[in-house]
Amino acid sequence: MALLSHLSALPTLEDDLALVESKLENAVIAKDPYLTEIAKHLITAGGKRVRPGFTIASSAVGQSNTVSVPDEVLMGGVAVELVHLGSLYHDDVMDEAEMRRNVPSVNAVWGNHTAILAGDFLLARASEIAASLGTEVAALLARTIGELCEGQILELQSAYSLTRSEDSYELSIAGKTASLLSTACRIGGLTGELEREVIDQLTNFGHAYGMAFQIVDDILDIIATEDQLGKPAGNDLIEGVYTLPVLLALKSDIGDQLRELLGKELSTDARDQALTLIRSTDAVEKAYARAQVWAQKAKAELESLPSSPATNALFAATNHLLERANSAG
Amino acid sequence: MALLSHLSALPTLEDDLALVESKLENAVIAKDPYLTEIAKHLITAGGKRVRPGFTIASSAVGQSNTVSVPDEVLMGGVAVELVHLGSLYHDDVMDEAEMRRNVPSVNAVWGNHTAILAGDFLLARASEIAASLGTEVAALLARTIGELCEGQILELQSAYSLTRSEDSYELSIAGKTASLLSTACRIGGLTGELEREVIDQLTNFGHAYGMAFQIVDDILDIIATEDQLGKPAGNDLIEGVYTLPVLLALKSDIGDQLRELLGKELSTDARDQALTLIRSTDAVEKAYARAQVWAQKAKAELESLPSSPATNALFAATNHLLERANSAG
Could you tell me which of B206, B201, B200 has the C-alpha nearest to residue B182? Predict the structure, then answer.
């Protein structure tokens, strides 16, 4: 699993994530077996569990030797992952996605109505677990779900907009991606009962990591092959989501040509032309430099933390992020 | 407003609900004014605020004279109403509703994507407020959102089913309606810092009231005029939701005739035939008797509570509920 290579410096992670896995399945048991089946659908489809991994690693920062991870930390990871899964249920309805993680999407199997309600159910279970971890975690997770929605709505609002600003892009990815990664780390610090200063640093680390992560993801949608992505490149272009490399390309020499193609629904031909145009500029390089800046910020936060296997693991995960973009295309 | 007549025995209710109204508007302010506008849409469209009314009334049970309602109680009412509103956003997407409360629905104005996200946003804000009221309220509200989803999914699962049992109907309305009304009362008791025994009685009252409320609502969909409903009767039949009066009619002499019509999508002609058939039986009368039993249970809970203007108001609201069905048709 990719995550294990991300956080492989953390010796007990695999065991801890196995515990998260069974706790995830328990968390979505409903009175009705029908709902339980629907709520489990994407859990059993697998996933990298990046966010619980970050919760666990964050909780262990400063610990010099292998101690068992407290149950509260694992449940914090479960809550964060349930938010991620719930939002995927809703994403797939909105994108009319047929597949997710190599299995048919919930909406494809049970219809949109059920997928919306089951997504709500997962978010509710996440909130219930958060409440069991205290008011600070409960308030934080609720605020984070709100930020997720804000980021996504901002993105929808600027769909197909050729005048989308880089600020608007940053605000959107801060909400839709960085927020939950930052909260995953913060909940690790809170449930691991770390010092306030460390908790705040972990929160900043998660935010910076999340920003870099999303920029890299957006670069991959421009440069990666269909094999690497599991879907054709340029998917964001099709959906009218103009990400950082696109915004930078619009400012380049070929900006006018690109503007002619974009701003409307695209044929696959037009998408391929747009991709070729964007790749012909230094937009990807510039976007990558921006991801590097965020990764540097992330690592700077880690550098002031006590050294430990967990700190090293988070450091390695951040480096791995940049390699993702380098090895693609 | 209908609610004021429901709970009119409570002298300060109108003022308290005015406070709830402004707190509701504040609660949905987002960083982005665009999202704020969407999140406010159904709030400004008005509404009876039945649930905050019950929270406020519950908190005041046992108080002999008019004291001001604590801020926590009002915020509890806000949280409960936000859950109700968030679920309406999702309901309207699912039902492809064009109108809600005499204004265009959120999905009609901004599209399904935005309506799903804005619904999530309202639920998240509700959870955030609940967290500020302590872990017990936070856990309770989260559990209630889960129950709402469970009730609705159960209903979807039995859509168009001619073998839907009365038990399945009761389980579904317990989740989709009684749960939030019961929680509205419980949160009133919790935030009003009433005694545990009183809190539990209020919870039971809310559940029983909610069950009666939904059965009456389902009766009205069979017997009320279009003028009274604001939409044609038989809407549930069109959507394949076979409620208690329908299930009872299916067991009557005309059961086979009705079975011929139902179990599939209905033309308006077929709907009218089905309505005529159901009205020709004693199914509505029997369903009404069931609502009366629940209303009796609700009033029995109130009878053992300390007498006070609030207790009287809840009593009057329960009586009013039954009159609703009597005055229709």
Answer: B206
Residue A163 φ/ψ, nearest 5 degrees: -110, 15
Provide the domain count of chain A.
1
Q: Where residue B312 sits, what CATH number does that domain have?
A: 1.10.600.10
Q: What average pLDDT does the structure give for chain A?
A: 93
Structure tokens at B19: 């406070």
Contact between B124 and A117 using a beta-carbon 8 Å cutoff: no
Chain A with chain B: Cβ pairs closer than 8 A: 151
Residue A97 is predicted with a pLDDT of 83
Q: Which residue of A has its CA nearest to B141?
A: A128
As a whole number of angstroms, the longest Cα–Cα distance in chain A is 60
ipTM score of complex: 0.93
Please report which confidence band the pLDDT of residue A101 belongs to, taking 50, 70 and 90 as the band edges: confident
- B121, B132, B150 member nearest A30 (Cβ): B150
Distances in Å between the Cα of A13 and the Cα atoms of A6, A16, A23, A318 are: 11, 5, 15, 17
Task: Look up residue B200 and give its two tokens.
Answer: 């539990």
- Give the range of the structural domain holding residue B318, as residue numbers without chain letter: 2-326
Contact list, A117 vs chain B (CB under 8 Å): 90, 94, 149, 152-153, 156
The answer to whether the beta carbons of residues B27 and B82 sit under 8 Å apart is yes
If DSSP codes are grouped into helix, strand and coil, which group holds residue B103?
strand
CA neighbor of A244 nearest in space, from A288, A208, A182: A288
The one-character DSSP state at B165 is -
Whether B235 contacts chain A with CB within 8 A: no
Task: Write out chain B residues lying below 8 Å of A127, CB-based.
Answer: 127, 138, 141-142, 145
The helix/strand count (H/E) of chain B reads as 18, 2
B167 touches chain A (CB under 8 A): no
The amino acid present at B28, given as its one-letter code, is V
Tell me the torsion sign for CA atoms A194, A47, A26, B168. Answer: positive
SS (H, E, C) chain A: CHHHHHCCCCCCHHHHHHHHHHHHHHHCCCCCHHHHHHHHHHHHCCCCCHHHHHHHHHHCCCCCCCCCCCHHHHHHHHHHHHHHHHHHHHHHHHCCCCEECCEECHHHHHCHHHHHHHHHHHHHHHHHHHHHCCHHHHHHHHHHHHHHHHHHHHHHHCCCCCCCCHHHHHHHHHHHHHHHHHHHHHHHHHHCCCCHHHHHHHHHHHHHHHHHHHHHHHHHHHHCCHHHHCCCCCHHHHCCCCCHHHHHHHCCCCHHHHHHHCCCCCCHHHHHHHHHHHHCCCHHHHHHHHHHHHHHHHHHHHHCCCCCHHHHHHHHHHHHHHHHHHCCC
Least confident among A111-120, B76-85, B205-214:
A111-120
Residue written as tokens 């696109």?
A246
Quick one: DSSP state of residue B99?
E
Rounded to 10°, the helix B50-59/B309-326 angle is 150
Q: Give the residue carrying structure tokens 């040509």.
A: A257
